[in-house]
Amino acid sequence: MTRRLYPGLRQRPVCPRCLPAADPAWLTSVRKYDILASPTYVGNGGQRLKTHVPARRRLDHWYKRLFPSDGSIQKNQQVFEQLPGSASRRNQASPPTKTPLTSPNNAPQLLSSADKRFNFAACLSDAVGWPLGAALFSQTTILPVFLRHLGAGNILIGCLPAMYNLLVFLPGLLLVGFISRLPRVRGFLLAVALVERFALLALAPLTLLWGRTHPGWLLAATFGAIAVHAGAMGVNQPAYWAVIGKCVPPAWRGRLFGYAGGIAGVLGFGMDGLLRHLLSGPSDGFPHGYALGFLIGFVILTVSCLPLGIVREPVSPPRTEGNPHTGHYRRDSVYVWRTNTGFRRFLYGQIALTLASLAVPFYVLYAQHHLHAGTNSVAGYTAALVLVTSFGGLALGAWSDHGGNKNVLLVSCAFAGAASVLALAAATPLQFYGVFAALSLALAGAGISGNNIVMEYAGTPAEIPLYTALYNAVTALPRAAAPLLGGLLADHAGGYRSVFLLSAALAVLALLLTLRTSDPRHEPVFAANKGG
After folding, report:
1. How distant, in Å, are the alpha carbons of 44, 89, 227, 467, 477 from that of 526?
2. Which of 212, 383, 402, 511 falls between 20 and 30 A from 316, CA-CA?
3. 133 in a domain, yes or no?
4. Domain of 404?
């Protein structure tokens, strides 16, 4: 079946259910060379097109109006109404109408420039507060030492990040269908985010009550609070990235987390002094310093996430029974895994990089036991994590916007290996600052570009929850197994140094696998949807 969009252009839709042939929103998603290419067939979103020379001449005029010289894509319904053969061109007397929330073909509501700036500021608040507040619950420096005060061994210390990672990254696939059916996700996002925060609040009073008298009870309560926090966060992951994908244009996402890191770095200059004060004293700040730190972290995390509830999120069009992707997210996950080769190779690299994190909980313990680092050094390492992650994230975020997320992921793999090598070579607590600096850059790069590249592979906001949940599900088991494997090696197979050697080897493997990954920015699907 052939339908005419306007004179000279003929379209042959492969799957009319996926994309209506005459949808004007579709035309803005096709790049210039896709429309102007002749006589070659080109594919875009399941379409096969063939254009002719007279149509190309007319399209060049409309292309200049649709795609200004600054490179932005203005999806303006009024422009389409002026296309040759459109209803408004045939009936000039038709009165102008207000643009509806959704187009006749269920195109999503468009955001104005003011909406985009407002959403950027709202998401920036959460992105700034998260690293600052989470630093006071750091599983790299604070919680391992806290668990050691409660009498936990290496394997039990490794169990905490294992449980955390399993609960954060696995449940999302079960909720992606529900989240994708919500017209707006912001209400769900904020409600579950508050559950995350209030689960951590319980640690503040319980540390004061049981820190000295019932350390075993407090140890169990710590695991319980972290479990609730991580489970809620796992449920919320697809919702968060769905909101980011709908409210923040692709070209702004890298700088969103980069700017957030820079602002958090400036605010983090006071983190070193705060932690030194909290962890000082004859008992190294236990339990009163830790309890106050947990309370401060809760306040920061809670206040900074509140603006997420007022983002100007466009209404998603309802998914109907005619949509072949409705309600089959587990089946679609298998389909994406089998057909999207670039995304599958990316996941292979992420599995190796995730396993390379088996050394992360044991860096600070190695510095304490083998290099005799004191509590002041632990506070300094935590501050270094915040500062280097913040300012490094600022540079890496800008680079990801301009140079692509794949390049940032390659650098992250290199820094992950460098952290393990520096830990093996460090001879003093002062030299160990280099370990945490390299680790911070690895975590910052993987956090910014790892999630952004997943959204680029998804291509459209409607597919972001599915791709995010699949990414989290595939990496959940390696994230859970890595710290457990590190704890077993530290106790029974050569100590901390063997853990660092294996971590360095896995980082090199991750680097080689990521090199084989395709960059979705160079694929037509991403280019078609670029521009917010």
Report:
1. 10, 32, 36, 14, 29
2. 402
3. yes
4. 113-315+329-529
